[in-house]
């Protein structure tokens, strides 16, 4: 990579920014390394930096072009249209642009992933109970478990994501905390964050709801609408979490921000401070997005889970108010066109559950077939690698994504019963 140091007043649209004169996470830029495509990005660089390093190989035409206003039709595009566009862009190998690639096969890394998940679950249950009882807390083990999750997700980004589907509402806060940690690290990996950055991000994500341990259980698990007083108590949990950990030894400030501000929203409608837009750090934006995604794809006392596809659809409709649309589209890309745990129907009518995402061919995941074309349950689920069949000249295509619990399919049970039977080719 050939780099050149430039003062920010020398920058132009088309140049590829490889490095800033300050940490990425202290800047308004969500992604490490990006091409300058608009005059707004130029202005931001000039406001936040004195100089940057340009990647000459990735830089293209460097003359200033007028910024085009987005068409109204594009602004009103539906989520499914976005999915189709993303699928066309991503259903090719993007190896050249990826910082991380899976180094260990799924079936080989899954047992280790399951052990880390189990240890983290056991730790959090005890940790949260200690917080409720007012005992002194030690985050050393939280840091160690987060580091192991980062290493595991770097090795293979499918295994831990599959385990997020095994959650149940009996230990909601524990499962939710682990899953938010996993999805945050996964998105950080996809965005090219360093291992150190992913560890900080993951630690904040793992403990983001620690303040809920000081919220009465009758409020936390209330199936009906909260009263104004109850809502005020519930909304105090980010600050209570911050207060619990602000004196913890060597706890990263960026992770503290995650705990304190993960309910902030891009339009200022969040809490506790009503922060707006770029006033919300990238770490916080990631965890805030992932927090909502895992919550609405989980069974709760007051609502049933919805499918990953339905969740992303709902979030996309509200993206301009709640989240960075660019970050959400990055998350959609990260999870895949057919996220793990999705129930899908093939063109021939067979129905299955997505087990792994193919990072090179995102339209060709591996499925666990459950129903035949007549919608009758198979005697035993059958593994189906769509990419393998395409290579053999027998193309099998997905026709649609189904809603959660379609045909009475229990995704959690299927994954628990069959995950370890995935072939070595995956």
List the helices and strands and how they pair.
Blueprint: E1 3-7, E2 16-20, E3 34-35, H1 39-48, E4 51-55, H2 72-75, H3 79-90, H4 106-132, H5 140-155, H6 159-163, H7 172-191, H8 195-206, H9 217-220, H10 228-234, H11 237-245, H12 253-261, H13 282-296, H14 308-317, H15 319-322, H16 325-335, E5 343-346, E6 351-356, E7 366-371, E8 377-385, H17 386-391, E9 398-402, H18 411-418
Antiparallel strand pairs: 1-4, 2-3, 2-4, 5-6, 5-9, 6-7, 7-8
How many DSSP H or I helices?
18
**Overall average pLDDT:** 84
What share of residues are in beta strands? 5-15%
Q: Which stretches are poorly predicted, pLDDT < 50 over at least 5 residues?
A: 62-77, 86-96, 420-426
Helix coverage percent of residues?
Answer: 40-55%
Main beta-sheet strand count, sense and barrel state: 5 strands, antiparallel
Q: What's the arrangement of strands in the largest beta sheet?
A: 8-7-6-5-9
CATH fold type of the largest domain: Hypothetical protein af1432
Known CATH architecture of the largest domain: Orthogonal Bundle
**Which shape, going by the Cα principal axes?**
globular
Number of strands: 9
Rg calculated over all Cα atoms? 22 Å
Task: Kindly report the oligomeric state of this protein.
Answer: single chain
Distance from first to last alpha carbon: 32 Å
CATH superfamily of the largest domain: Hypothetical protein af1432
**Assigned CATH class of the largest domain:** Mainly Alpha
Structural class: alpha+beta
- The overall number of domains is 3
One letter per element, helices H and strands E, the order comes to: EEEHEHHHHHHHHHHHHHHHEEEEHEH
